[in-house]
Design a protein that fits this description.
By secondary structure, the chain is an alpha+beta fold. The chain contains 12 helices and 13 strands. Strand 7 and strand 8 form a beta hairpin. Helix 4 crosses helix 6. It is elongated and about 120 Å long.
């Protein structure tokens, strides 16, 4: 018995020495070698170049990443709660490391050889996103843990959450929650519904897998799971939970909206800045203000296009873009993509699916008659009717600026089913 006690005592002493030596090595050698986190207080994100008119209205945006940094106090609480509920429900309580979650993940890997749960906290993800490579190694994980501990010791929870929500990739070039709100819903953060906030909160884990545009079914399952977690954690009431569950998916891709088309000026600005700053110009968050008046520019663009179209019409009809064989298309043209979504300068591409002949007025004057028209399927699968109230004789074939072909007498002389053309939107 004495021998067993002696062995146990030696093992305990040896283990204690190893732990103390390990702790000393971490504190004295590894921790001092960790990167400084001072710059996190004023983090610089990869924000695109934005060019504005003289009234601070956006004219153009250049850059690979769509990002709009936002301060913590401008983020809706229910969006923060949604992220915490699914990513790190102990975020407000731990010191950067959730030892229970980390231990559970390690035990799962050791016993099953698979990893289905994550042990990373939001703070550990901040450490990874700002300082570490994405490689999956034990050394990187260890550094991630040490960095998380250091970040928690120097920054408050609100700042850590702000860093995380502004840095994460959320699919379709959207980096950060504010950009995601505009990309998927064309909304400011404060205008998001609870269901929409939960949908965005589900993206960090796998932006492609749970994307509401690319994979709406999976995204819906993930959104509802997050809402359930929020209800379990008492972040939302039962009535809010049920209303959000019943809200349909409304996400779709939205491009950056600009006040006016001023591509030439915007390109001149971009080229000059690129010559001076190189690739950094696309991620330094520069804002450039020009002397352009966006409203006047929009009016000028509209009038120029009108004049060009009128000039083109006066000199004869130049013909259709293409001819499409509709004989193999299903009976309902809406069931098959015939026209790609193309819109340029207020003109929309479409294909003629019906020619409607003129109906003369009645002799007694009770019926005024109907002008010739063409039914056109346009790019977003809507049907529009093009009326030719003034006749079709203006559509004489263009030969050159001084010559035209014979004037057509009826619409069938110019158009036929399957003709691809552009029309004013």
């Amino acid at each position: 018995m004495k021998k067993l006690v002696k062995i146990v005592s030696w093992l305990f002493a040896a283990g204690s020495i190893v732990l103390i030596a390990g702790a000393f090595y971490i504190y004295a050698v590894l921790v001092p070698e960790l990167p400084s986190i001072e710059h996190l207080e004023d983090a610089q994100y990869q924000v695109p170049l934005r060019i504005y008119d003289k009234n601070e209205i956006l004219l153009a945006e250049f850059g690979e990443h769509r990002r709009i940094p936002v301060k913590f106090d401008k983020i809706p609480r229910y969006l923060i709660d949604a992220v915490v509920a699914v990513e790190d429900d102990q975020f407000w309580n731990h010191s950067g490391i959730d030892f229970y979650a980390l231990g559970a993940a390690a035990y799962e890997v050791a016993t099953t050889g698979r990893k289905t749960r994550g042990g990373s906290t939001i703070t550990m993800q901040v450490a990874r996103n700002f300082f570490l490579s994405p490689e999956q190694t034990y050394a990187r994980k260890f550094n991630e843990i040490l960095l998380a501990w250091k970040i928690e010791s120097e920054l408050d929870k609100e700042k850590i959450m702000e860093l995380y929500l502004n840095k994460i990739f959320l699919g379709h070039r959207a980096y950060g929650i504010s950009a995601a709100s505009q990309v998927y819903y064309d909304k400011q953060l404060g205008d998001l519904t609870l269901a929409q906030a939960a949908m965005i909160a589900g993206l960090p884990k796998a932006p492609s897998k749970y994307n509401p545009v690319s994979n709406p079914e999976r995204a819906l399952i993930r959104r509802n799971y997050i809402l359930g977690r929020m209800r379990i954690l008492n972040y939302i009431e039962e009535e809010e939970f049920q209303l959000a569950l019943n809200e349909p998916i409304t996400a779709e891709l939205h491009r950056t909206r600009t006040a006016a088309e001023a591509q030439y000026v915007s390109e001149q600005v971009r080229a000059q800045l690129f010559e001076q700053y190189g690739d950094e110009v696309y991620k330094a968050g520069l804002k450039v203000y020009t002397t352009i008046d966006g409203e006047l520019q929009a009016v000028a663009n509209r009038e120029l296009r009108r004049a060009l179209l009128d000039y083109n019409r006066r000199h004869g009809y130049r013909g259709v873009i293409d001819k499409i064989d509709l004989t193999d298309v299903v009976e309902d043209p809406f069931e098959e993509e015939i026209v790609r979504d193309e819109q340029v300068g207020g003109l929309r591409k479409g294909v003629v699916i019906a020619i409607n002949e003129a109906v003369p007025p009645s002799a007694d004057g009770s019926f005024k008659g109907v002008s010739e028209s063409a039914t056109v399927l346009i790019s977003n699968y809507e049907q529009v009717v093009m009326l030719f109230e003034g006749g079709i004789d203006w559509a004489a074939r263009f030969i050159d600026v001084d010559n035209q072909g014979p004037k057509p007498e009826k619409i069938a002389d110019v158009l036929a089913v399957g003709y691809s053309l552009t029309c004013r939107g």
